[in-house]
């Protein structure tokens, strides 16, 4: 009864994880409301304890698996691909910088802060180093030793990462809210502000160093958030792979070793996709800077900045929708077989893409209801409506394109899998062969043609295949660059949802802030995840 | 590429469903906040349209599958078991009664209501009748015709049911909130109340008939909520079964035809479980009535009523935890193999049990934080803390017990699967046989013993097996009855969370009301679903 016990072991670790996660989220959400008598030191203490426990478990795991010779008999070749590993290290380094800033910020008024606030970033730095090393070394492991302990340990690591992610998202939202209430006329959260100001009065952040540190660590938050999510997905795949048996047939090289280089970029694309994408990226960056400058100034420039922002986004989203649709149409003519193998990494990727898109969908639907139901119908309302509708369409078509791409088998080198060209050629060749005597003229399909015709197939179908593959590579690169700029804008603080006042007037500040602050982190994560998936599509095409 | 296309078809229907559902939930949640300019007539119009479309699709489906001879080549024997079907009809009938009440209520002030409010319950009644017939006839179908259309139709039906469920939950929460603000001193939602009272002033509900109708339809809401969820689970299983191929090996009678009768109750249990369960049920009902009477009166009796309520719940939950734990221990000695077959119904059951428990977990963790973090530590705080902790423990152990039960293969009639008794007997018999000449004295296990010893095995192991099975049946019946009373209390309006003022003072009214109103419906659904799962455990044991 192997499978049965597998589910039992998974169930126990899931129960552990769910309960710890709920406790953490209760504390974090209670701590976010200043009215409530839960202080952020409680949250910091809980998170620090969880990170310490995780570090101990990781060290134990590394020590044990190095001792036991048959603890890891199989490696999952799909798990921990190079772009995930690379992203993890990049975001890990940024998180370390953030931790330095945070330690500096809290050290600036050491005398009136509790020790845990300075301890927290230091422990987090150690945690990030240990965990990144651990995932670099063992992300592909299919563990077969200490099953229950390993499952619980991995689930606990996952829970720790998710708790850190939640804490970071909540902290960032509270920060945005503070800066919003400070700069605008909305003063609904007066009790919140008062509580914050009493702390600030006792320990003012006056020195230049302190203010630089504070600014710096809030700009680095998006990287910390992404680090936690990247680590979570990799740990989840490891957890799924515990006790997994992989046959040798599953391991026939899926082209994963074929990493994209700059030279191959010239050879393998039409060069339109990357150029157009880069153009949009640069224009978008410019518009983002103009927008931020205009909005943070006086209110006279806000309307113009919003029109500019929405126009660029509508153009970009429209193009992306059309291009994704084009990609899906190309697949309609593609005869490659679908990959049927069990693949936890891909299943998770698809689930995350579909799930994370829900956040952006929700914001868009609320916007649509607000614009349609609201009374003043002006230019900004129309732009907002088109933007929301196109956002939904773009997510749908991009998801369809990516999911279809990930399920294709990698291209076969010798053309024996596509049916269509073989048929055509078989007929053509038979005409030639029928001039020879003794050839049977049965009008049917020749299944196992000898070597001669098959070589001809390769020569004939190769350019067509190449053309299609080049097109797909162009599409994926274009979409990738567009997703990067659409990630940069909200991740670094563009919030047109709060500046255009349409939804704000319709729903009221507290309700609309709750909707955006809960849903937008998922939308940002979607962009990030789409980038990594599109990189995979580029390699596989 | 069958599987690949299957996923593609599923993806399209999921995308359709997600978008419609998000639109509906946006409108419903906007409509719930009276400040927002979305009126409930918009919500009613959307739901009515969705129900009409679903009715049309169902009629089309029934018509088409009756014409096409090979549209449904297989039936899934696990789908739509008898208790789900029975529950669906029971709740369907209650929903019809509710619709009559609702039509009567809205007809009472016909002149100043829009027509859609009277049309809505009438259409809902037709919808319930058509859908119940549809699920009664075709819940087991594995459809193989019009794949994409069927998938989209089923997903749309699912979406309609979920939207009705959401609307009912929101409507009930708003009603509870109104009666709460009317009866207590909390008047935070003044704007909400004012908007409600202006409508009521124009069209007063003065007649006795009208008031009876209003009271009646709010008491029947829990059944409507359960009806939607039952229908949703059955439709989801149908959707999973579209294009499924079932081999003949999967269909070896899983004992599902063995429905429990009253006579078999006497034969198959020790009779302790049902008696103890009934006792708790009756006592609980009495305490529930006392609680409701005391709380709705003046505030002097509230404290006493709460102590009574919490004491009963602590006793009941403690017993249930111990009994579930006992059941899991019995399984440790059970040598039955685990059932490995793919079974969408069971997978969904397990996911729903684990998922619905999250609602109660969340409430409990928030209570724990409030009690531990709050300052006044009195008797009520201690009771609340024990209640919350036991609630979490009970959910965990009951889930473990139910999930383990559902994964067991049904008992084998002739004792050839348990290893233990056979071994013991083989040795015993060999001693006897060794007195005979020419018997080889190899000290090993005899695998295929002749007919004689095997009959002896059946006789010897039968009472032990019977004892274990009886014990499990007692446990499942006891848990079932306890779950029924724990369902009745919150479903019919017991809200100790709002009466004990502990969490209310800690979190403030609006936050705590949001937490409870979002999470409690899942908790109530959990009880309902646990009852149906425990009935299945009873039959399978």
DSSP summary: helix tally of chain A: 18
Oligomer: homodimer
Q: Compute the CA-based radius of gyration of chain A.
A: 27 Å
Largest interface, C-beta closer than 8 angstroms, per-chain residues = A-B, 48 and 48 residues
What is the arithmetic mean of pLDDT of chain A? 79
Shape of chain A: globular
**What's the helix-strand series of chain A?**
HHEHHEHHHHHHHHHHHHHH
Please state roughly what percent of the residues of chain A sit in beta strands, choosing from under 5%, 5-15%, 15-25%, 25-35%, 35-45% or over 45%.
under 5%
Q: First CA to last CA of chain A: what distance?
A: 40 Å
Number of strands of chain A: 2
Low-confidence stretches of chain A: 185-198, 250-258, 413-461
Range of helix content of chain A: over 70%
State the major sheet of chain A.
2 strands, antiparallel
Biggest sheet strand line-up of chain A: 1-2
- Structural class from helices and strands of chain A? mainly alpha
């Amino acid at each position: 009864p192997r499978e049965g016990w597998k589910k039992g072991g998974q169930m126990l670790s899931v129960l552990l994880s769910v309960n710890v996660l709920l406790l953490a989220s209760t504390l974090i959400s209670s701590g976010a409301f200043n009215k409530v008598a839960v202080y952020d030191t409680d949250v910091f203490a809980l998170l620090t304890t969880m990170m310490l426990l995780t570090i101990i478990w990781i060290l134990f795991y590394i020590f044990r698996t190095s001792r036991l010779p048959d603890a890891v008999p199989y490696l999952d070749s799909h798990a921990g691909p190079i772009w995930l590993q690379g992203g993890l290290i990049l975001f890990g380094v940024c998180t370390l910088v953030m931790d330095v800033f945070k330690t500096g910020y809290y050290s600036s008024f050491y005398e009136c802060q509790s020790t845990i606030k300075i301890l927290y970033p230091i422990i987090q730095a150690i945690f990030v180093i240990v965990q990144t090393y651990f995932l670099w070394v063992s992300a592909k492991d299919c563990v077969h030793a200490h099953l229950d302990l390993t499952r619980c340990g991995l689930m606990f690591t996952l829970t720790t990462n998710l708790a850190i992610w939640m804490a970071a998202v909540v902290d960032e939202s509270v920060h945005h809210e503070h800066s919003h209430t400070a700069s605008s006329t909305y003063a609904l959260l007066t009790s919140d502000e008062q509580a914050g100001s009493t702390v600030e009065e006792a320990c003012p952040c006056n020195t230049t160093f302190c203010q630089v540190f504070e600014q710096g660590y809030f700009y680095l938050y998006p990287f910390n958030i992404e680090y936690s999510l990247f680590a979570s997905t990799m740990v989840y795949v490891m957890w799924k792979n515990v006790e997994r048996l992989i046959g040798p047939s599953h391991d026939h090289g899926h082209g994963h070793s074929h990493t994209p280089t700059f030279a191959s970029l010239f050879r393998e694309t039409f060069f339109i996709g990357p150029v157009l994408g880069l153009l949009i990226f640069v224009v978008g960056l410019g518009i983002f800077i103009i927008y931020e400058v205009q909005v943070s100034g006086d209110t006279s420039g806000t309307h113009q900045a919003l029109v500019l922002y929405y126009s660029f986004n509508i153009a970009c989203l429209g193009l992306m929708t059309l291009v994704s649709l084009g990609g899906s149409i190309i697949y309609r003519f593609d005869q490659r077989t679908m990959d049927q193998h069990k693949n936890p990494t891909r299943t998770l990727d698809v689930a995350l893409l579909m799930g994370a898109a829900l956040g952006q969908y929700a914001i868009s639907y609320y916007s649509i209801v607000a614009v349609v139901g609201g009374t003043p119908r002006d230019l900004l309302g129309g732009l907002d409506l088109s933007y929301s509708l196109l956002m939904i369409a773009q997510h749908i078509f991009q998801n369809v394109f990516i999911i279809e791409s990930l399920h294709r088998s990698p291209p076969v080198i010798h053309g024996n899998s596509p049916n269509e060209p073989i048929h055509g050629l078989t007929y053509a060749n038979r005409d030639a062969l029928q001039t020879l005597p003794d050839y049977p003229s049965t009008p049917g399909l020749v299944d196992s043609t000898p070597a001669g015709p098959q070589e001809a197939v390769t020569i004939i179908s190769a350019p067509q295949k190449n053309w299609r593959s080049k097109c797909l590579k162009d599409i994926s690169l274009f979409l990738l660059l567009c997703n990067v700029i659409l990630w940069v804008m909200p991740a670094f603080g563009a919030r047109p949802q709060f500046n255009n006042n349409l939804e704000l007037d319709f729903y009221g500040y507290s309700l609309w802030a709750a909707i955006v602050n809960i849903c937008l982190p998922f939308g940002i994560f979607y962009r990030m995840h789409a980038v990594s998936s599109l990189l995979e599509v580029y390699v596989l095409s």
